[in-house]
Amino acid sequence: MNKFDQKIAELRDLGFRITKTRKGILKILFSSKNPLSAMNIRDILEKQKIDANKTTVYRELDFLIKNEVVENVKIDNKMSMYEICSNHHHHVKCVKCNKIFEIELNEDINKHEKKIFEDTGVKVLNHIFEFFGMCKTCNNVKI
To answer: In the 8-state DSSP scheme, what is residue 79?
Structure first.
C-alpha cells in the first residue's frame, strides 16, 4: 500500500468521509515535488474535472492541516503553500525561475534550540529558515 492509499485508509478509519475533492487534493499533494498554493491546487482539480470552488479548497486544506496530513508553509514570506507533512525540512527558492527545492539540513537544529533556551530562557516553538539563490539551470552552472 502506498503512502497516499495508507493516508486515505487512516482518515476513513478515523470516521472521516473521503470526498472526491478531499481525495483529489491529497492525490495532488502526494504527487507534487514542491509546495503548492491553494489556487494551484484548485486549478489542477479543475483540469481533473473535479468541481471545487476556492472556499471548498481552503476548507479541505484546513481539515487536512488540523488532522496533521498537510502543512502550511510560507516561502519568501508570501502566500501560503501546502505540502504533505513529512520529516522536518526547509526550502530553497530560485530567485530567477521561482522553483522551490526541498532540503534537509544535517546540523542538529534541536541542539541550537536547546542552547537558545539555556542562554535566554526562551523555548523555541517554531523556526523559519529561508534560502534564496539561483538554481543550476538559471545559473548555467555544471555541478
So the answer is: S
Which amino acid appears at position 128 of this protein?
I
pLDDT, one tens digit per residue, over 72-109 is 887 666 778 888 887 667 778 888 888 888 777 766 77
Retrieve residue 121's grid coordinates: 530562557
Cell numbers for 98, please give them: 521561482
d(CA 38, CA 116): 35
pTM: 0.68
Cβ-contact 80, 73 below 8 angstroms = yes
In this structure, how many other beta carbons lie within 10 angstroms of the beta carbon of residue 70? 22
CA 11 to the chain's CA centroid: 19
Q: Sketch out the chain's domains with CATH numbers.
A: 3-84 (1.10.10.10), 90-139 (3.30.1490.190)
Partnered with residue 100 across adjacent β-strands are: 93
pLDDT tens column, 50-80: 988 999 999 999 999 999 899 888 766 677 8
Cell match 529561508: residue? Answer: 130
Question: Identity (one letter) of the amino acid at 49?
Answer: K
The C-alpha cell that represents 60 in the structure block: 479541505
81 in Cβ contact with 73 (< 8 Å): yes
